[in-house]
């Protein structure tokens, strides 16, 4: 049985990055850049005023209070008509190019227009050379890497791509995810369960998590514990980049999943992981390195499915999309109460993580009633990680998986 770390390594090893495509930056939200975004220009392209005020030659103000001639007004989007000379000033607006000859800007609040001559301005204090000026190339130099490959595109990246790349992005395409929910006991959300039946919660939950990760999802519905029916569903699901099968992957008399996957050419990579909940996880792949389908046989228990998704499926989706590798674990949470894990497997326990006043992160295990308790699970924003056979005291630091 593999450890969580070993299982994560196996998933990453078999998850090959998907082909690239160019698309509008706004459509690439949540996707990862497939190549470095390199600035083709300097930014700004000119010395730029960062305040409304007057463009001046700083040396003219060395004596402090000085009266200068106003020779022109420069607004954003326009350029100066003449070179600024000693004894002169140009009224300038934020974002406008500095006129040739000027080297500084003084804020309008530090000036006063001559009441007897509106073409002159009183500079009320000494101006430091370069004040309130963003020099040409001060933000970006030509050839500079602005966004490295693997970065996830957020709204700020969309803005940068609009400025430097024509609002287009080269990204790894979104993975397709097919979902099969197995079990004679399952009914759809709109159906009143009969004796021995339950509503299918895993299917919608897995779909929501996959969409949240940036995938395109195809629900293949509820499949009964029937070899032929499940075989057909698996055949269709293997057309996707990732196939998620909820339930039917253990050793029960109707757990046909592993045998049917093998019959359709899916190679088992591992079965069972040393963790709780989620031990029965099955992982395999069909196909070579060009475009394999990754298959996850997830436990039918909702909490187990959630834990396995956030640890392993999310890792696979991130790798497929070319996102810079980020561990699912976040460290440095201060435990708010005692916790005991008497079992022989690491536990991923529903918890609520928050920030303390003055900094630092805390985590509080919830009063979770077990694997079927989705109501309490909905209050969690993290899964606190507790090692096997370990007693924890409030004030200890622990790691967590954010959910």
Poorly predicted ranges (pLDDT <50, ≥5 residues)?
none
Shape: elongated
CATH class of the largest domain: Alpha Beta
Largest sheet: 6 strands, mixed
Number of strands: 27
Structural class per helix/strand content?
A: alpha+beta
The number of helices is: 7
What is the averaged pLDDT score?
A: 93
How much of the residues is beta strand, in percent?
Answer: 25-35%
CATH superfamily of the largest domain: MoaB/Mog-like domain
Helix content: 10-25%
Beginning-to-end CA distance, first to last residue? 25 Å
> What is the CATH topology assignment of the largest domain?
Molybdenum Cofactor Biosythetic Enzyme, Chain A
Protein name: Molybdopterin molybdenumtransferase
Cofactor: Mg(2+)
Family: Belongs to the MoeA family.
GO cellular component, one term: cytosol
Write the layout of secondary structure elements.
Elements: H1 4-14, E1 20-24, E2 37-38, E3 48-49, E4 53-56, E5 66-74, E6 88-92, E7 104-107, E8 111-113, E9 120-123, E10 133-134, E11 145-147, H2 155-164, E12 168-172, E13 176-182, E14 186-187, E15 198-199, H3 202-212, E16 216-223, H4 227-237, E17 242-246, H5 257-263, E18 267-271, E19 282-286, E20 293-298, H6 302-320, E21 329-335, E22 339-341, E23 347-355, E24 361-365, H7 374-377, E25 382-386, E26 390-392, E27 397-402
Parallel strand pairs: 5-6, 13-16, 13-17, 14-15, 17-20, 21-24
Antiparallel strand pairs: 1-12, 2-11, 3-10, 4-6, 4-7, 5-9, 8-9, 18-19, 19-20, 21-27, 22-26, 23-24, 23-25, 25-27
Helix pairs in contact: 1-6, 3-6
Catalytic activity: adenylyl-molybdopterin + molybdate = Mo-molybdopterin + AMP + H(+)
Function: Catalyzes the insertion of molybdate into adenylated molybdopterin with the concomitant release of AMP.
EC number: 2.10.1.1
């Amino acid at each position: 049985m593999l450890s969580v770390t070993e299982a994560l390594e196996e998933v990453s090893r078999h998850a090959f990055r998907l082909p690239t495509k160019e698309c509008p930056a706004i459509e690439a939200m949540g996707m990862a850049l497939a190549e470095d975004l390199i600035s083709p220009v300097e930014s700004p392209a000119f010395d730029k005023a960062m305040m409304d005020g007057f463009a001046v030659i700083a040396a003219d103000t060395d004596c402090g209070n000085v009266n200068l001639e106003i020779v022109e007004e420069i607004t954003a989007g326009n350029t100066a008509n003449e070179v600024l000379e000693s004894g002169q000033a140009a009224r300038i607006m934020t974002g406008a190019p500095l006129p040739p000859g000027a080297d500084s800007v003084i804020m309008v609040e530090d000036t006063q227009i001559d009441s007897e001559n509106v073409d002159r301005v009183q500079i009320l204090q000494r101006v430091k050379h370069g004040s309130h000026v963003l020099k040409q190339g001060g933000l970006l130099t030509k050839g500079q890497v602005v966004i490295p490959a693997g970065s996830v595109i957020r709204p700020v990246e969309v803005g940068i791509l609009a400025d430097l790349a024509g609002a287009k992005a080269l990204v790894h395409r979104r993975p397709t995810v097919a979902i099969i929910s197995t079990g004679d006991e399952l009914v759809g959300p709109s159906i009143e369960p009969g004796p021995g039946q339950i509503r299918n919660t895993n299917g919608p939950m897995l779909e929501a998590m996959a969409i949240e990760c940036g995938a395109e999802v195809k629900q293949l519905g509820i499949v009964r514990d029937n070899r032929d029916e499940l075989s057909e569903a698996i055949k269709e699901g293997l057309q996707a980049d990732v196939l998620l099968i909820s339930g039917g992957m253990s050793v029960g008399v109707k757990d046909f999943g592993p045998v049917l996957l093998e019959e359709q050419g899916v190679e088992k990579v591992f079965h069972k992981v040393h963790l709780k909940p989620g031990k029965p996880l099955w992982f395999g792949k069909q196909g070579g390195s060009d475009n394999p389908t990754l298959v996850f046989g997830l436990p039918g228990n909702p909490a187990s499915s959630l834990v396995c998704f956030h640890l392993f499926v999310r890792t696979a989706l991130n790798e497929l999309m070319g996102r810079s590798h980020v561990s699912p674990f976040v460290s440095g949470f201060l435990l708010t109460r005692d916790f005991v894990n008497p079992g022989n497997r690491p536990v991923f326990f529903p918890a609520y993580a928050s920030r303390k006043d003055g900094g630092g992160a805390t985590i509080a295990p919830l009063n979770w009633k077990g694997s079927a308790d989705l109501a309490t699970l909905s209050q969690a924003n993290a899964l606190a990680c507790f090692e096997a056979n370990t007693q924890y005291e409030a004030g200890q630091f622990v790691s967590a998986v954010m959910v």
